[in-house]
Amino acid sequence: MKLINKTAIVTGATQGIGLACATRLIAEGAQVMLVDIKEEGAQAAAALGPQAHFFCADVSQKADVDAMLKETLAQFGHIDILVNNAGVTHAADFLDVCEDDFDRVMRINLKSMFLCGQAVAREMVKRSSGCIINMSSVNAELAIPNQVPYVVSKGAINQLTKVMALNLAPHGVRVNGIGPGTILTELAKQAVLSSPQARHTILSRTPLGRCGEPEEVAGIAAFLASDDATYMTGQTIYVDGGRMALNYTVAVKE
């Protein structure tokens, strides 16, 4: 176990990649605060055992982030790891996206990472150590026509990761990103795996011939949080089945 005596916050932690990350960090010995706007996260935390705690918060709101930080410090005393994972999508063509939906996606996907990252980094700087992981996407660089605010937010997350890393490096705090491809989560099923045709399209762009599992993303988060990654900062690792390297399509096994 590589994270014994470490404490972590995972946002968007009630399902999918967030829950998988929390589960893996606990398996590696960490204590984890699961944070989500969905109150059923309390049950998810309880199922993970005594190393898991839950805090209900809207991490796009500063008051909630401040309360989250206060509760985490009360429970654990310090913070070593932040996994900024909360995120949503909104499907609409560019000409049809309304301002409220654009703002909502940017607030949850991007502003939350700024607010949580800044609040937690202020505590990490006091101890001259810490690791922040921002959940990006292959769509930071590859666009989907009807996922306008999502694609924009993920591109911005990559730049936020870099500027955070540069600012915090002198303080001993590392910041990296993870860019998943299509992972078998409820979010992906709703956004890009909604039909057999959509599945065929995704797999035709995936050299490994399958979608990823949340646990495969969580493994990268555990690596980045561990001492195995102490010389890495400002990077985004793509967990995408080879999609970013592909310049054509591949055959799909039906």
Q: Beta-sheet strand percentage?
A: 5-15%
Helix content: 40-55%
Overall structural domain count: 1
CATH fold descriptor = Rossmann fold
- SSE arrangement, N to C: EHEHEHEHEHEHHHE
EC number: 1.1.1.47
Family: Belongs to the short-chain dehydrogenases/reductases (SDR) family.
Pfam family, one: adh_short_C2
GO molecular function: glucose 1-dehydrogenase [NAD(P)+] activity; quinone binding
Question: How would you characterize the overall build of this protein?
Answer:
By secondary structure, the chain is of the alpha/beta class. The chain has a single domain (7-183, 212-241), classed as NAD(P)-binding Rossmann-like Domain (Rossmann fold, 3-Layer(aba) Sandwich), CATH 3.40.50. It is built from eight helices and seven strands, in the order E-H-E-H-E-H-E-H-E-H-E-H-H-H-E. The protein has helices at 16-27, 41-47, 62-76, 99-127, 148-168, 186-191, 196-204, 214-225; strands at 7-11, 31-36, 52-56, 81-84, 130-135, 173-180, 236-239. A seven-stranded parallel β-sheet has the order 3-2-1-4-5-6-7, sandwiched between helices. Helix 1 (16-27) links the parallel strand 1 and strand 2 (31-36). The termini are far apart.
